[in-house]
Amino acid sequence: MGKYNEQFYVEEELEKQLLDGEQILWRSKPNFMAFFMNNSMETLFIVMLPYAFAVAVGIFFNLRSEAASTAFLLFSSFFVFFSLLVSVVIFAVWGARREWKHLEYVLTNQRMIICTKGNGYVYTIVSLKEIKMITMRQGGFDKLFNVGDVLVTVNQGKNQGVCRILDIKDWEDFYFLLDEKMEEVKEGVRQEGQKQEPDMLDGLKSIL
Full-prediction pTM beyond 0.85? Predict the structure, then answer.
């Protein structure tokens, strides 16, 4: 199918990223409400805090005033604050929905892929060979919506990075599947290394 649907990413675009013999084992999207609450509440709080402070100061001085327009000023302050709050919430929901719509997590037998979309399709691709450690966590909003996160620590030369698989319903299943496939890949690498050792020794003997 060539169109985006509510469940998963554009199939053709994802398939272009797959290598020969690579198979999709698991794919998922974040739970939208958990994704929105975890990613937008802090921003909402930061944005609205100055307005809330300004309204509180205005109310304080209005209450001290003996002017006949005190009630009107109080009503105006609440109306402005409420209007701003609604506007910010609507904008935050729209932004979170747009980001969530194009976000997908994919695990194959060789790599982990995070699909997003900005000006074009964007992929964060991690080979299972590069993964050093995986951990699970479940925050307050995660518990509310029965979702969780998996944090994947990746070796990047001398540095380490962390890929976050956020707000997924089957986070425990994904964690154990990723751990299993990661060990399979690493065992394959070890066996390949052991096979190459006798060949190297034979080569040295022939030279000597």
Answer: no
Q: SS3 letters for the chain?
A: CCCCCCCCCCHHHHHCCCCCCCCEEEEECCCHHHHHHHHHHHHHHHHHHHHHHHHHHHHHHHHHCCCCCHHHHHHHHHHHHHHHHHHHHHHHHHHHHHHHHCCEEEEECCEEEEEEECCCEEEEEEEHHHEEEEEEECCHHHHHHCCEEEEEEEEECCEEEEEEEEEECCHHHHHHHHHHHHHHHHHHHHHHHHHHHHHHHHHHHHHC
* Encoded tokens for 206: 């022939």
Q: Report the pLDDT value the prediction gives residue 133, as an integer from 0 to 100.
A: 92
Number of Cβ atoms within 10 Å of the Cβ of 28: 19
Question: For 161-198, how does the pLDDT look when each residue is reduced to its tens digit (9 = 90+)?
Answer: 899 999 999 999 999 999 999 888 888 777 776 766 55
Q: What is the pLDDT of residue 204?
A: 44
